């Protein structure tokens, strides 16, 4: 990247009117127009056109827009490695009553979706939707597979069982080589459930597909009219920021790197989807609330505690198996072990991390 002095061309930044609970923003003069600023280092020119007001970044959902905290759920297994549907009801109650989480993202990476059969994913999705009815605001079912036909089958099924939306990850064995190829795949999945809100699930560290999420969003609504946003589980905050800047107001931009939540809120995230919100949900909600109120010191303090916990866990080899065993320990639920090739975590390791958690956080 060149120095600031080398920026000779202009660029455009859209500025929207926002009704915010962030005190620092409320001190500014209200903006009543959509403003396009043509900027270089020392020059600002302004052009305006009328625009209606928007809601705050973490305000209640409008027109069922997905906002706030979303738990990426673990898949309950028996000790014999079979899916355990009986644990889903208590799991939902725990999330709502103990963690204050009101939306869930099921059968995703945390849910070990790629280690499940299509039949298992159907059974799980149906049970999650059935038990969440009247308790959770939204259930988003991840339907991405290596096979287009499997993804389409799961998308049709999600529509039939009353899911609130579907999400699709990029195939990662035969990888799409361009943004256009991936958009076309996403379109083919969405086309079999055209009335169901559709989310692109961006997680390049897992898929190995290093296409910028912003490039995927380019004119995506023309191919996918049901498109409603992106679950951005990458650490590239420049790409994330460009997604926020580009997205339409009725879309949701949800961040998925829990240890960087505060940074994403500053960039304009509508909410967050993550595995640690299964047991850190109430604390992450406090972080969001503090940010809303302009209490950056409190928000940063909570974020630093989350980072300290995860940094400590990573030194012990934190992975999905460890994370799931930690959830078992902290929640009291019986979610079972992970499925191979993910190895079960030694109990001593989970107990050590749980002790660290309790040294940093009070009970919710």
UniProtKB/TrEMBL annotation:
Subcellular location: Cytoplasm
Principal subcellular localisation of the protein: cytoplasm
UniProt-recorded Gene Ontology molecular function terms: N-acetylneuraminate lyase activity
SMART domains in the record: DHDPS
Pathway(s) where this gene product acts: Amino-sugar metabolism; N-acetylneuraminate degradation
Enzyme's top EC category: lyase
Keyword Calcium part of the UniProt annotation: no
TM spans (from-to): none
Keyword Acetylation: no
Catalytic activity: aceneuramate = aldehydo-N-acetyl-D-mannosamine + pyruvate
Keywords: Carbohydrate metabolism, Cytoplasm, Lyase, Schiff base
Any one GO cellular component localisation term in the record: cytoplasm
InterPro entries associated with the record: DapA-like (IPR002220), Schiff_base-form_aldolases_CS (IPR020624)
Catalytic activity, EC: 4.1.3.3
Family stated for the protein in its record: Belongs to the DapA family. NanA subfamily.
Protein name: N-acetylneuraminate lyase
């Amino acid at each position: 990247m060149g120095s600031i002095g080398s920026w000779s061309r202009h660029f455009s930044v859209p500025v929207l009117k926002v009704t915010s609970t962030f005190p620092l923003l409320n001190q500014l003069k209200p903006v009543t127009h959509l403003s396009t600023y043509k900027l270089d280092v020392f020059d600002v020119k302004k052009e305006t056109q009328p625009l209606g007001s928007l809601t705050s970044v973490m305000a209640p959902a409008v027109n069922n827009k997905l906002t706030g905290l979303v738990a990426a759920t673990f898949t309950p297994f028996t000790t014999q490695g079979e899916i355990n549907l009986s644990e889903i009801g208590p799991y939902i109650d725990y999330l709502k009553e103990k963690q204050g989480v009101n939306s869930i993202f099921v059968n995703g990476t945390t849910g070990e979706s790629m280690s499940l059969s299509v039949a298992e994913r159907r059974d799980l999705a149906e049970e999650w939707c059935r038990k969440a009815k009247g308790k959770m605001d939204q259930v988003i079912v991840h339907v991405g597979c290596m096979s287009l036909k499997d993804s389409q089958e799961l998308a049709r099924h999600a529509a039939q069982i009353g899911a609130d939306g579907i999400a699709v990850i990029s195939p990662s064995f035969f990888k799409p080589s361009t943004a256009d190829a991936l958009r076309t795949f996403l379109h083919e999945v969405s086309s079999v459930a055209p009335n169901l809100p559709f989310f692109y699930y961006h997680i390049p560290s897992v898929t190995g597909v290093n296409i910028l999420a912003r490039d995927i969003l380019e004119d995506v609504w023309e191919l996918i009219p049901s498109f409603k946003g992106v679950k951005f589980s990458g650490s590239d905050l420049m790409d994330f920021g460009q997604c926020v800047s580009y997205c339409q107001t009725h879309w949701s931009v949800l961040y998925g790197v829990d240890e960087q939540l505060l940074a994403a809120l500053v960039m304009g995230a509508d909410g967050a989807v993550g595995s640690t919100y299964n047991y850190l949900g109430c604390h992450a909600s406090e972080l969001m609330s503090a940010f809303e109120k302009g209490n950056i010191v409190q928000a940063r303090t909570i974020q630093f505690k989350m980072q300290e916990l995860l940094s400590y866990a990573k030194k012990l080899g934190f992975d999905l198996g460890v994370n799931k065993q930690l959830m078992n320990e902290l929640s009291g639920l019986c979610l079972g072990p992970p499925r191979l090739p993910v190895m079960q975590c030694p109990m001593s390791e989970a107990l050590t991390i749980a002790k660290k958690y309790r040294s940093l956080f009070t009970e919710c």
